[in-house]
Every structure is written in structure tokens, then in C-alpha cells.
Inverse folding.
């Protein structure tokens, strides 16, 4: 699913010959890329009502200024509280990419002075 709600293709890795739509987006320092599986929003609350894609995107958007680890902790907690069972019934995968800098080539072994870590 893309940010505009359109389905992007079959699950990654499910079929060897799958073709996925591509797009280009300009990234800026401090942007966050969040990838997730459908098990994250296919959580059911009171009255068997699903949390849903729109609510998930809204929950992520309101936390975008937080580091990914905190964003994910809060998001998972909100979803567990929403769920009548307080757990997930489908697989859940969250991947976050925090953009530290843009336009600077990264060389393996180089030290990121800002983060104090070695890049690989």
C-alpha cells in the first residue's frame, strides 16, 4: 500500500515473477519511511470493527517527528489496546528508515560524525 491508499502489488517475496509499480520521491533530512504488513491494520476492536488502513496511516502521521523506535512502540501499544484480544492475529512486520542526510554519497567503512557510527 502506498501513502495514497492504492495497493502496490502482491506481498513481497511471495511470487518470484511479481512486478511492482515504482515511483520516485525526493527525500529530505529527517524524513521517515515506514513499511508494514497488513497484519498491522487487520486488528479488530469492539463490535468486530477493524482498525483499518486509514486509522493506521493517521496514527503513523501523528508520530512522524518521533524516532522510529518510539513511533513503533507507541503504534503497537495503540493497536494492542484497540484489539479485543490485545494481540495480533496475523503476522506483523514494521520497518522504519530515518533519513539522516541527503545528497552525500555513503562509503562503506566511513564514520557518520553526526550519529557516531560506522556506515556499512
Amino acid at each position: 500500500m502506498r501513502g495514497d491508499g492504492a495497493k502496490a502489488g502482491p506481498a513481497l517475496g511471495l511470487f518470484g515473477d511479481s512486478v511492482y509499480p515504482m515511483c520516485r520521491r525526493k527525500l529530505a533530512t529527517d524524513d521517515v519511511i515506514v513499511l508494514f504488513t497488513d497484519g498491522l491494520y487487520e486488528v479488530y476492536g469492539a463490535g468486530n470493527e477493524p482498525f483499518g488502513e486509514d486509522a493506521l496511516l493517521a496514527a503513523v502521521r501523528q508520530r512522524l517527528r518521533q524516532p522510529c523506535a518510539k513511533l513503533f512502540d507507541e503504534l503497537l501499544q495503540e493497536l494492542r489496546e484497540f484489539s479485543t484480544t490485545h494481540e495480533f492475529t496475523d503476522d506483523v512486520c514494521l520497518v522504519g528508515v530515518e533519513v539522516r542526510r541527503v545528497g552525500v554519497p555513503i562509503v562503506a567503512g566511513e564514520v557518520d560524525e553526526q550519529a557516531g557510527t560506522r556506515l556499512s
